[in-house]
Structures
1.
Amino acid sequence: MRDDITILRFEVIDLRFPTSDTLDGSDAMHPDPDYSAAYVRIVTDHPTLEGRGFTFTIGRGTDLCVAAIKLLEPLVAGRTLRALRRDMREFWRTLTSDSQLRWVGPEKGVVHLATAAVVNGIWDILAKEAGLPLWKYLCSLSPEEIVAAIDFRYITDALTEAEALEMLHAQSAEKLARMRAIEGRGYPAYTTSCGWLGYSDDKIRALCRESIADGFNHFKVKVGADLDDDVRRLRIVREEIGPSRKLMIDANQRWDVEQAISWTRALASFDLWWIEEPTSPDDVLGHAAIARAVAPIGVATGEQCQNRVIFKQLLQAKAIEFCQIDACRLGGVNEVLAVLLLARKFGVRVCPHAGGVGLCELVNHLVHFEYCCVTGSEEGRVCEFVDHLHEHFEAPCIVRGGRYQSPTMPGYSSDIKDASLRAFSYPNGSAWQARKANREGVHV
Amino acid sequence: MRDDITILRFEVIDLRFPTSDTLDGSDAMHPDPDYSAAYVRIVTDHPTLEGRGFTFTIGRGTDLCVAAIKLLEPLVAGRTLRALRRDMREFWRTLTSDSQLRWVGPEKGVVHLATAAVVNGIWDILAKEAGLPLWKYLCSLSPEEIVAAIDFRYITDALTEAEALEMLHAQSAEKLARMRAIEGRGYPAYTTSCGWLGYSDDKIRALCRESIADGFNHFKVKVGADLDDDVRRLRIVREEIGPSRKLMIDANQRWDVEQAISWTRALASFDLWWIEEPTSPDDVLGHAAIARAVAPIGVATGEQCQNRVIFKQLLQAKAIEFCQIDACRLGGVNEVLAVLLLARKFGVRVCPHAGGVGLCELVNHLVHFEYCCVTGSEEGRVCEFVDHLHEHFEAPCIVRGGRYQSPTMPGYSSDIKDASLRAFSYPNGSAWQARKANREGVHV
């Protein structure tokens, strides 16, 4: 048995899938996404053990994240896994506090997305070394070890280290029983697949029926481009799903505050559970004003909320009823842990953002951990599921009967198949070269 | 005379000055800055007219901004100056709303800093074409034209287009008289040069006396590393400047909220005018809590506040008494205009951040415009001045008698000398090559 393992270097890949060709996943603000990942292989001196991490992007700009990950490499290379395990907080802070790089953040945008990729890759390798899927690895840590991974800087006015520790200790006794329970039944998922803009009546009805047959009880519809069209699609969906299933809407930041209020009110008769991303992800006070005005419809946001400081304020201001963490927008697992505990303290439900490429794989671990160690409840909680691009993963998430099944393979489910890495690396992968040749052929 | 001018392409330069060698400008969070600029030359089909824009950075990460500027090039190349003048709002929104790039922002961090460089370069060329320094070019625009450059998305709950127009119209009658007045006397500056961490007593006293002799009446001291040392330096500065001159402190985001309150109170006996950057630039509610607790000391922040949405909230929450816009952190002139008008509406004084490389050159235009067209007052307003790296500019700012003198050369004062561009381009410029050779020599 080896004494310790040392990180040698990064191999970083600009990975893009040409999803804009089919317009899967387009919304009011992002009409032509190429689902992408800035993907990092963390190479060690061990013959087989390698960390894999990524941040999700949608095309242009992936190269910026790739370059930022490379800038973080010198802060990671040479570290041993033992030293990392011993001080995950210091490690995280080293990445987010680089004295020069922080100027172009700090803790937001490109550099923070890059931090997420690296941090996720480190947790992947630690879990793999332990032979556990990430959620079980997190469950294997003591409350003290969890708290020691969190940077409490800028959040102590809302959550102290002592409070976090107390919350985790209070849940410890139930942990093992919950792990057994969730492995049996999984965690509730919801689907966005029926509700994209631009679908015909027939397509919406067919997708709703399919999703109901698949066991889903929560349905999300994209809104905000045209009120009449929103009414049309919501009427169809509500007819199909009946009065008892939950219906949510998602505006993808389309509105200003006043418009968000009036538009949401205009749709309220469809018995909406939440309005997601009604306005700018930076607008804490705006979300709070909307929340007051549209209650009892809850406000949900998070997929573009840049860090724990924004989530802290959303919670302090009672601006959200649903906390939509993103596994890559936040600075990886360490910062997700901070937000899970903040949400728990404020009594707000976490319903992670997923979709894109790989986000479903990641958040499945996070909700499993949260259930076992933080909340012990799935009451009113659902985790987003979009059925895209899972085929590229070595351990794709499995959703059955409307529920995420528990991950079993060691690591953070972030291993993308070698063939996919080769085909979709941008711009020289075989899929992109073939597409280019094809287009040039068409234009001749 | 030419009919119109078309933008052809960008030439982007990674420009870094090795200021970490001397530790000029180091603070509690940024101990070793290499003052830098992602610098763009906007090349046109005109034989001599070229736009120059930049964003300020401090070393690592400049390359990310350079790459982001290049990603914006296709959104700008091919546009004519006439078309730009006709719809500056649409132009700005095109840059900030790119459907794929916005994912790695939106409107924050690397991509927003890059937007600033490009947008500043466009205003530079428009002012040059008009034969006016930028501030006079802005003054030459009608209230309607100013408002037409502003993207009101996400701020209409605080400031509508109609309100902005009314505010500008109300100032119009005084504009010409103010332009004449400010050209005679300039605009008040303050100095940070006496107050860096780590200076000896004698050095502090000498610098204070120098600054008083130079006509300064406002003095800023860096704090937050060590309370005893802060007391020592503040006592010296207050002794030197006497009871009537203003004394400010700057914590560079060092504290959590509670600590900011207790530390500031511990220094309050030195009669402080403002506490700058007490905590995370993202923490609107935190700044508001600090403001309530430390009054009558005012809270100041802004140099790392990412966009108009954050400033809007700082104003709505009464979190700041001094609004420290940054000419490059905000998305260039268009977004600065939005924040100037927001601040005016909320009755908050704008005291721009400057220093680094080139920021003094830029903000001088902004305070000149603000005085002439927005406020008509310099009461309680000061613009930061740091005496660094001005020698590299074709039209360096001039501060005399503690006041910024009015820029006279056409454009936005963003032209850096060709020799400096060559010497300090990173990593192959002659200054960097010489430094490398020198270091290698030392190590042999």
2.
Amino acid sequence: MNTPITIPLKDSYKLFNHGPVSIVTSAHGNQRNIMAASWTMPLDFSPAKVAVVIDKNTYTRELVDASGEFGLQFPMRKNAKLTLDVGDISGRDADKFSRFAINTFPAQKIAAPLIADCIGWLECKVIKQGAESMDLIVGEVVAAYADAEQFLNGRWHFSDDPQKRSIHYMAGGEFYTTGDAFTTEDN
Amino acid sequence: MNTPITIPLKDSYKLFNHGPVSIVTSAHGNQRNIMAASWTMPLDFSPAKVAVVIDKNTYTRELVDASGEFGLQFPMRKNAKLTLDVGDISGRDADKFSRFAINTFPAQKIAAPLIADCIGWLECKVIKQGAESMDLIVGEVVAAYADAEQFLNGRWHFSDDPQKRSIHYMAGGEFYTTGDAFTTEDN
């Protein structure tokens, strides 16, 4: 698996400022679940906050509401299939971690496991701010990690190998790989 | 400029489901402004809603609060510089449209102008849902358009020319081009 290095919380927005697809992990008691989420964004720098849309009818939402915690992680292209697989069945019917043989490692500040084959990870605690009526969950980031190989000196330096890069979800099973970095001077 | 074709509102989330950087336009009375925003996401399919973070201290926020409207558009790589330029000065001090010679065309359902050199455009009406304390503006999408050349049959078919593709913002003046499309069968 990739080696997660700890990222300062103030830099955690950089893990997904570019809008990659994410995977949400959750746990409460002896229950746990995993779902994909495209609708997520940073919400503040300090304290670092994230916003993620989690439908009120989902099992993930039930566990997030009950535990007040969730993990948010960013898969690499090599694991694109995982983000589709976990949407195919409900976690109420099967333990998706077992079903899809998902490798995890323990989080430090939340009970939900983190997924090994990702390149960025956030541990989040839910902040109640009245946004729940919009299916919107707001979380404060309490820990952040990134792939030691690709996140260096406070920013992504994505591999030339597209299989290691983050991905963006379109719809209907279609993704985009994160493309090449540029500045307006290169343009 | 690109030719905007009308998109059904139910498909409007597809314009930015993949997390590109956006530009917010706003107008109230004879005032108007423009700012870049990376922190934006779809919030619902039907009625189509968007969430965008607009700091309470900005001139854009003042105009959006006063008018209850905003335009949200997605630039192509060729116009990456525009997204940086409009953050360099405050709209309180200068009309950025004139300063940066920005080509616009009129929106249909909102007063704010839309920016010609983009590939996707949303006209939005603010919905008050108690999220304002988080610098979060929620809008209902009331009109949507996309570049006729690249949005076909309800989805993006990005040009092979990276200059025409959407872009994702990292930090510190760095962007990523939207990379190649793939499905898990290609992977």
